Give the backbone structure.
Amino acid sequence: MLKNNLTMKYNRINDYIILALIIIIPLTCFILSLLPVDVQGSLMLQTGVWNPLTLFTSIFIHLNQLHLSSNIISFLIISIILYLVNWKAGATSILLKLMLLTIFLIPVVYNIFFNFYATLIIRESFTSCGLSIAVAGLLGLTIPSLRIFLIKPVQDNYILNSFTFSLLMLTLTVISLPRIFDPLCLIIFIGSLALSLIFLSKSRRLLADLFKKDFYSKLIILVTLLTLTVYYTLTYFLFPADIFVFEDVVIDVTAHLAGLLSGIVLGLTAVWDFKNRLNLSLSGK
């Protein structure tokens, strides 16, 4: 009884911290956007200038209102979805760790490597800023979070693995779609789409049977489909066909790819952690 009470309090604290992050991060970005332009510029990452502070502060600085609003809206949408899915699965403690790593660590690590690459290899000067790496990282947590969300209702590891792999392949399909006229991207598009359909067919029957069950099972499928719709829509817009420009400052989608892949890898490692905890919990009963 005491252990259950402590667990409930621990989970409640995790919930409060996650909700606080969902509020504080966009609010911080907005407040910093009100600073004088020269002050904001000093907080951006300038390649070739090794200022440890800007490795962190550049995450929350944006080039203009469009840059700011698109990142904040995307951050809020995907963070709320991740919270609801993981809350229902009882995995908010895992989500909190992943969010902290994704928002604060991944962008800093990327900024360090980007600075080294720009300064020592291509020897060009760039300005880097924005929450988009963190947003892409959170987006990468979506498929692993759905994998955790479906563990209890599906209870078939092979089906879940096939479904997860099909979603990962479909992610490659969506990323390569804007560049489909490039021969390499066309090959990736066709190959990943084919693999996605093959592995999705392996899980189709069980997911269809789940939909035929009670209202709760139908709700699970509906939540999964809505989450995937948001995920693939945001993924598509994160990877335009060309490098694009905000006010003469080049924005490269390489950062988005780094964030997305990092989020996927971190999320998949968390899946195994959750499964081990679940097995220990069941064996303890």
Remarks:
- The chain has twelve helices and four strands.
- The first helix runs from residue 2 to 33.
